[in-house]
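REQUEST ID: PR-0412
SUBMITTED BY: lab tech R.K.
PRIORITY: routine
TASK: structure prediction, single protein chain
INPUT:
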Amino acid sequence: MGLMMCDGKFVSRDEVALVPTPGSTESWKPVPHMEVIEAVTDVVKAHNWQILDENFGLAREGQKMFGVMRINKTNSTDWSRCIGLRNSHDKSFAVGLSAGISVTVCSNLAFGGTAVIKRRHTSRIELTELVDVAMTELENEFLILETVCEDLKIIYLKNDDEARSRIVRAAEMGAINSSDIVPVFKEFKNPRHQEFAEPTRYSLLNAFTETIKKYTPLRVDQSYIALNRGFGLDGKRPELWR
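STATUS: complete
OUTPUT:
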């Protein structure tokens, strides 16, 4: 599992706890980064899950916090479930959680939709309750992600031209920068991990997630949203094949 932090720095929980929270106003009450992490931790433990490992990062001088927690609730040997979380102190985005999977062989990530916790924060208890509700919603997303990825592993691309056209379409959708069209194709044709040698949609998804590791956290977030739609990770018809 790996959090992508081209812009910003990796930090520990203790370092996150040192980030000051701005003062609130009548219309805006910023949530301390550490309270988000602790609320998610409490809910994970309440579900009798175990956090296997975790990564956190800060960007924009601590104004933005990103994290990934890998948990043990899965029966698959190909990947593990993980929870993506984010928070901001500059009003750029609300508290958000995502259901994800971390592919075992390469530590690449894939995420479904994001459950944004919309609220006027008043207490730690309230935040924990909201996270609990969001986690219940994410359980369904975990199942969708795993089912779709199993299907992607057995759907083969017809030829290289199909791969090229889907990669270009993905760039048009904002999943990757146009300058990365060729790198994604090269990763698909010559994957650094033998497990993705077969020309399947799953291997193509891996080529994308391998390439976007260099992006900033916010750009990665945008990429996942587009890939989510493109590959049908939300359980809907994949836009890349419409």
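NOTES: The helical segments are 13-17, 33-46, 124-152, 160-172, 181-189, 201-211, 217-231.
REVIEWED BY: pending
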